[in-house]
């Protein structure tokens, strides 16, 4: 085959071979995985296919939506609701018939995509839109020791990072901020910004009327509940009253009942809490009849004017109208399944969006807060991040150029690349940082453990594998996504793994808390965390149900540290919106964004050196259509 | 979570798009994610724009894709040549069955499919056959993968009718973008800082011409109108690097820049007007030209390594898709910004080095542009750009 090409080269190979030399052959032989076929993914797949990567696997669980079409160019109107992975494969396949494409319309976290499967790739590309999946692929690539090209975009900003186990920082070496949450009292009693009223409408009012209880919402921060016990108790009563009104769904008086509950009586109660309004402007309760009279003649299709900021009366009309639409839907569902169905908020479900927009604005009116258009409320309620084709195209181009360096096994020249908004340059680049020694994800020992899941118990792991096999002492904790064992909690010891939810592909973390004395009397630090990936294996009855660790396997000790401090508070507190905003301000019209980042990095490096967790680097994470944006 | 900066409406008044041109609900739905970035007015301006794209190769594929997706009014694709096997390696609008067809006509149906709202025209004439008036029908002309003489001729025509001009090409892992917007006014939206924005020159080509503030909630947002003056490609091509640059900064200029200039000169002066081959004579000629380019640019003589020259020459005829994606992405985004009259545009020569991922934007101008700008400002006037500039100025 090779010889044949020498005599009459494939015209598709001529250009790349001239520009890339021997690298081109490696590209043709490369087997790569692309996770995500959205904004970056469509652009990346085009690049990979035309550059001639030998075999490409595409994983995406999403389906195509109208709002994707402004940038995800492998998709057209006729593909709406179809699988992104499948359509991407079909469209991009035509760009180059020599490339082998495989599409998986599936969740990358599914068990079929196990470590063995990852090991089959030379390189993995993340083209994802959420933190959770990014973290998962990062972890899997570390476990399988496959290099990862991580990328993300937000509006005009984009970044690409090469990750290689033991050589570079991993995705989790720098702390990622958690999604923004609000104290319950801010949302329920003392809102001061439009977002407070939007969260109230979406995560409290909507869910209490049409969904399950609001207590589950991650947007509520309960840490200050204790300080405000009295108010929390009052709020709980209010919620229960609202739940009762829910039973009136479908009756003529339903809209009035809800309205008078949340915009009249609840507000009047709040007004009575005089202490609360000493330094704030007190709310003004609304009167249903007054607003209804003033709203006479406003048509129901007001809701279609999504750019306009609706008046109090217009909001009232949309509130009543959307409540009726939703009530009808719920009743129809209940007729089928006997009152089981619930509705959940979806920014693309017009009825739910109309209701949330109108209810949020009515509450804003009550509290004297600026009203917002439905267009803006959709963005805030749905955590929509602006996304454009050009940024994705540029970023995906950079991903491939970085992949070239990985395939050349020249990681020292690989970079962290940021799209720059400076007038002097289009990119700013940095050398890849070394792994953060105290990273919870890559600063750990990893191993695969073969377990006969039909009979192995936790005790087999503790006594056999850990103590006998690896020399662990008594002071250990074992956890999956839940705690399985620690010295004060041994209830599970006799239980089989399967009863604790451990299956093929589960990661078990073993934490060592033992400081022990070495042979020469020196103090040995505890071992680094050990992460065991479970592989199911049938084992003969007469043998231990867990294959013992390989001979000579030693779990390294932690480096003596001043204190492995938790991530700094500001990383968690950074409001998603505020962070994003800050970034735009920093980067617009100058390169001070880049300067600021450099500064942060310097801090990070310093901190790592003295053993403490550094301050976070600016991070861009594309959140295309769901989830939250994380920028620090 | 929210980007209020971008969607905050610019003030009403002359800026408001006429009703007939307003964006429809369908368009809002499709363009939702980008309107949230650059706002409704910019989207409406883009929708009414006419763009000419010359030369349908890898970079042009990317530009056409990006502009069509963004929702410009019409795109005219001009290319007199036919599709060859080589084109298939770096283009995604065409396939085997298009070999032998005109390049513009072969690509057009696929571009149309990307966004049926955008009108796609094709033109199979040679760009050199077009009279200067031809270019006046387009808001912006983009010329890709042309030789220097052709670029200068088109640029000159565009200047005669006061139309912005871009050119770009990729040479293996390297490439460039050049912009001549003649004179361009744009608005930067930012939080008001403690330091007062002065109505004064910021660089030799850029000055702040007006500034307006608006209170948004707790903070004050500033709309700063700036103007950039440009030089023609003919004037730029012989310019040295900014004389104020210190030697250290000069060393950051990619060696690709003198090589690109050498390549232009090689093609211009070679009897067949062809790219250099990897032959000893061609390499020697090319090296001489590149060394001259280094001297003309006033760059350190030792920045040019023989190994780099041979890498550049060997790869210069190939088009790499990731490189085209980057250059086509940057160029299209700049066109979008210019149409929307937002953001700082490229000023005026981007050199791209895909080996180290560097993309410095060099401001190359003949001496005295600053003087000219303040003096006889007759470089561009009465054009549409100037007219719409007036609208922005009236913001103040």
TrEMBL record, chain A:
<dbReference type="GO" id="GO:0005737">
    <property type="term" value="C:cytoplasm"/>
</dbReference>
<dbReference type="InterPro" id="IPR028077">
    <property type="entry name" value="UAE_UbL_dom"/>
</dbReference>
<dbReference type="InterPro" id="IPR000594">
    <property type="entry name" value="ThiF_NAD_FAD-bd"/>
</dbReference>
<keyword id="KW-0862">Zinc</keyword>
<comment type="pathway">
    <text>Protein modification; protein sumoylation.</text>
</comment>
<dbReference type="InterPro" id="IPR033127">
    <property type="entry name" value="UBQ-activ_enz_E1_Cys_AS"/>
</dbReference>
<keyword id="KW-0067">ATP-binding</keyword>
<comment type="subunit">
    <text>Heterodimer.</text>
</comment>
<dbReference type="Pfam" id="PF14732">
    <property type="entry name" value="UAE_UbL"/>
</dbReference>
<feature type="region of interest" description="Disordered">
    <location>
        <begin position="564"/>
        <end position="598"/>
    </location>
</feature>
<comment type="similarity">
    <text>Belongs to the ubiquitin-activating E1 family.</text>
</comment>
<feature type="binding site">
    <location>
        <position position="173"/>
    </location>
    <ligand>
        <name>Zn(2+)</name>
    </ligand>
</feature>
<dbReference type="InterPro" id="IPR045886">
    <property type="entry name" value="ThiF/MoeB/HesA"/>
</dbReference>
<feature type="domain" description="Ubiquitin/SUMO-activating enzyme ubiquitin-like">
    <location>
        <begin position="449"/>
        <end position="516"/>
    </location>
</feature>
<dbReference type="GO" id="GO:0016925">
    <property type="term" value="P:protein sumoylation"/>
</dbReference>
<keyword id="KW-0833">Ubl conjugation pathway</keyword>
<keyword id="KW-0479">Metal-binding</keyword>
<feature type="binding site">
    <location>
        <position position="442"/>
    </location>
    <ligand>
        <name>Zn(2+)</name>
    </ligand>
</feature>
<dbReference type="InterPro" id="IPR023318">
    <property type="entry name" value="Ub_act_enz_dom_a_sf"/>
</dbReference>
<feature type="binding site">
    <location>
        <position position="170"/>
    </location>
    <ligand>
        <name>Zn(2+)</name>
    </ligand>
</feature>
<dbReference type="GO" id="GO:0019948">
    <property type="term" value="F:SUMO activating enzyme activity"/>
</dbReference>
<feature type="binding site">
    <location>
        <position position="84"/>
    </location>
    <ligand>
        <name>ATP</name>
    </ligand>
</feature>
From TrEMBL, chain B:
<feature type="region of interest" description="Disordered">
    <location>
        <begin position="368"/>
        <end position="388"/>
    </location>
</feature>
<dbReference type="GO" id="GO:0019948">
    <property type="term" value="F:SUMO activating enzyme activity"/>
</dbReference>
<dbReference type="InterPro" id="IPR000594">
    <property type="entry name" value="ThiF_NAD_FAD-bd"/>
</dbReference>
<dbReference type="InterPro" id="IPR035985">
    <property type="entry name" value="Ubiquitin-activating_enz"/>
</dbReference>
<comment type="pathway">
    <text>Protein modification; protein sumoylation.</text>
</comment>
<keyword id="KW-0539">Nucleus</keyword>
<feature type="domain" description="THIF-type NAD/FAD binding fold">
    <location>
        <begin position="31"/>
        <end position="357"/>
    </location>
</feature>
<protein>
    <recommendedName>
        <fullName>Ubiquitin-like 1-activating enzyme E1A</fullName>
    </recommendedName>
</protein>
<dbReference type="Pfam" id="PF00899">
    <property type="entry name" value="ThiF"/>
</dbReference>
<feature type="compositionally biased region" description="Polar residues">
    <location>
        <begin position="375"/>
        <end position="388"/>
    </location>
</feature>
<dbReference type="InterPro" id="IPR045886">
    <property type="entry name" value="ThiF/MoeB/HesA"/>
</dbReference>
<dbReference type="GO" id="GO:0016925">
    <property type="term" value="P:protein sumoylation"/>
</dbReference>
<comment type="similarity">
    <text>Belongs to the ubiquitin-activating E1 family.</text>
</comment>
<dbReference type="GO" id="GO:0005737">
    <property type="term" value="C:cytoplasm"/>
</dbReference>
<dbReference type="InterPro" id="IPR000011">
    <property type="entry name" value="UBQ/SUMO-activ_enz_E1-like"/>
</dbReference>
<dbReference type="GO" id="GO:0031510">
    <property type="term" value="C:SUMO activating enzyme complex"/>
</dbReference>
<keyword id="KW-0833">Ubl conjugation pathway</keyword>
């Amino acid at each position: 085959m090779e010889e044949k090409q020498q005599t009459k080269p494939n015209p598709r190979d001529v250009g790349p071979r001239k520009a890339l030399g021997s690298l081109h052959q490696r590209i043709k032989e490369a087997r790569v995985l692309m996770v995500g076929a959205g904004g970056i993914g469509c652009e990346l797949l085009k690049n990979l296919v035309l550059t001639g990567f030998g075999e490409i696997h595409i994983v995406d669980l999403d389906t195509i939506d109208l709002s994707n079409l402004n940038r995800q160019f492998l998709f057209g109107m006729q593909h709406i609701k179809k699988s992104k992975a499948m359509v991407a494969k079909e469209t991009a396949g035509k760009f180059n018939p020599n490339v082998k494409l495989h599409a998986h319309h599936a969740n990358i976290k599914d068990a079929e995509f196990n470590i063995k499967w990852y090991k089959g790739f030379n390189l993995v590309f993340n083209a994802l839109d959420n933190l959770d999946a990014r973290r998962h692929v990062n972890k899997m690539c570390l476990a399988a020791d496959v290099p990862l090209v991580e990328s993300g975009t937000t509006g005009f900003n984009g970044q690409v990072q090469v990750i290689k186990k033991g050589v570079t920082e991993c995705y989790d070496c720098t702390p990622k901020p958690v999604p923004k949450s609000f104290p319950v009292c801010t949302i329920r009693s003392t809102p001061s910004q439009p977002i407070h009223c939007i969260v109230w409408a979406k995560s409290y009012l909507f869910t209490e009327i049409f969904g399950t209880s609001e207590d589950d919402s991650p947007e509520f921060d309960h840490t200050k509940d204790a300080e405000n016990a009295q108010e929390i108790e009052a709020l709980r009563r209010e919620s229960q009253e609202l739940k009762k009104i829910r039973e009136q769904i479908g009756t003529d008086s339903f809209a009035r009942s809800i309205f008078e509950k949340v915009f009249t009586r609840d507000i009047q109660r709040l007004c009575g809490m005089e202490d609360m309004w000493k330094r704030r402007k007190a709310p003004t309760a609304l009167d249903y009849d007054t607003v209804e009279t003033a709203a006479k003649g406003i048509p129901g299709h007001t809701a279609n004017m999504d750019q306009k900021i609706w008046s109090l009366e217009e909001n009232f009309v949309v509130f009543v109208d959307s409540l009726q639409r939703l009530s009808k839907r719920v009743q129809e569902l209940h007729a089928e399944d006997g009152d089981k169905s619930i509705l959940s908020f979806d920014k693309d479900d017009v009825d739910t969006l109309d209701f949330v927009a109108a209810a949020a604005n009515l509450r804003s009116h009550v509290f004297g807060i600026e009203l917002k258009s439905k267009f803006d409320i959709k963005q805030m309620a749905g955590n929509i991040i602006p996304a454009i084709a050009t940024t994705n195209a540029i970023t995906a181009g950079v991903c491939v150029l970085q992949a070239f360096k990985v395939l050349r096994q020249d990681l020292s020249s690989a970079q962290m690349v940021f799209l720059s908004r400076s007038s002097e340059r289009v990119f700013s680049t940095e050398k890849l940082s070394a792994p953060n020694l105290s990273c919870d994800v890559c600063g750990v020992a990893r191993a695969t453990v073969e377990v006969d899941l039909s009979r192995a118990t936790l005790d087999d792991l503790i006594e056999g594998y850990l103590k006998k096999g690896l020399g662990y002492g008594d002071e250990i904790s074992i956890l999956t996504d839940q705690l399985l064992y620690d010295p004060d909690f041994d209830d599970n010891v006799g239980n089989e793994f399967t009863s604790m939810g451990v299956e093929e592909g589960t990661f078990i973390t073993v934490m060592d808390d033992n400081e022990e004395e070495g042979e020469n009397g020196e103090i040995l630090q505890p071992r680094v965390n050990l992460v065991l990936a479970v592989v199911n294996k049938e084992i003969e009855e007469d043998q231990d149900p867990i294959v013992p660790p390989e001979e000579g396997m030693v779990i390294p000790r932690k480096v003596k540290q001043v204190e492995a401090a938790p991530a700094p508070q500001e990383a968690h507190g950074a409001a998603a919106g505020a962070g994003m905003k800050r970034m735009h301000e920093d980067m617009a019209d100058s390169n001070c964004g880049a300067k600021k980042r450099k500064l942060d990095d310097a801090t990070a490096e310093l901190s790592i050196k003295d053993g403490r967790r550094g301050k976070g680097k600016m991070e861009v994470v594309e959140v295309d259509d769901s989830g939250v944006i994380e920028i620090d | 979570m929210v980007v209020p900066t971008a969607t905050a409406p610019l003030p009403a008044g002359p800026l408001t798009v006429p009703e007939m041109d307003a964006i429809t609900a369908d368009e809002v739905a499709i363009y939702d994610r980008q309107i949230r970035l650059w706002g409704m007015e910019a989207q409406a301006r883009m929708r009414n724009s006419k763009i000419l794209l010359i030369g349908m190769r890898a970079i042009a594929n990317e530009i056409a894709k990006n502009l069509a997706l963004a929702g410009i009014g019409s795109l005219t694709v001009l290319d007199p040549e036919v599709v060859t096997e080589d084109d298939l390696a770096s283009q995604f609008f065409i396939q085997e069955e298009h070999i032998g067809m005109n390049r513009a006509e072969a690509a057009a149906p696929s571009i149309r499919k990307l966004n049926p709202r955008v009108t796609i025209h094709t033109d199979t004439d040679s760009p050199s056959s077009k009279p200067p008036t031809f270019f006046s029908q387009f808001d912006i002309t983009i010329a890709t993968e042309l030789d220097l003489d052709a670029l200068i001729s088109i640029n000159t025509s565009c200047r005669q009718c006061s139309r912005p001009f871009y050119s770009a090409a990729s040479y293996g892992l390297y490439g460039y973008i050049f912009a001549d917007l003649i004179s361009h006014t744009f608005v930067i939206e930012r939080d008001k800082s403690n330091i007062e924005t002065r109505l004064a020159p910021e660089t030799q080509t850029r000055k702040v011409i007006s500034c307006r503030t608006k209170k948004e909630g707790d903070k004050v947002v500033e709309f700063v109108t700036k103007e950039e003056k440009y030089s023609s490609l003919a004037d730029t091509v012989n310019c040295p690097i900014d004389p104020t640059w210190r030697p250290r900064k000069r060393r950051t200029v990619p060696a690709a820049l003198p090589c690109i200039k050498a390549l232009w000169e090689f093609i211009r002066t070679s009897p067949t007007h062809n790219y250099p081959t990897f032959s000893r004579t061609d390499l020697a000629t090319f090296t001489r030209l590149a060394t001259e380019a280094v001297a003309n640019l006033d760059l350190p003589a030792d920045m040019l390594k023989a190994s780099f020259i041979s890498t550049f020459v060997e790869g210069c005829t190939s088009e790499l898709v990731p490189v085209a994606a980057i250059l086509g992405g940057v160029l299209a985004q700049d066109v979008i910004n210019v149409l929307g009259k937002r953001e700082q545009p490229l000023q005026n020569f981007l050199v791209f080095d895909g080996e180290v991922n560097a993309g410095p934007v060099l401001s190359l101008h003949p001496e005295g542009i600053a003087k000219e700008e303040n003096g006889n400002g007759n470089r561009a006037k009465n054009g549409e750009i100037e007219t719409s500039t007036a609208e922005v100025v009236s913001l103040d």
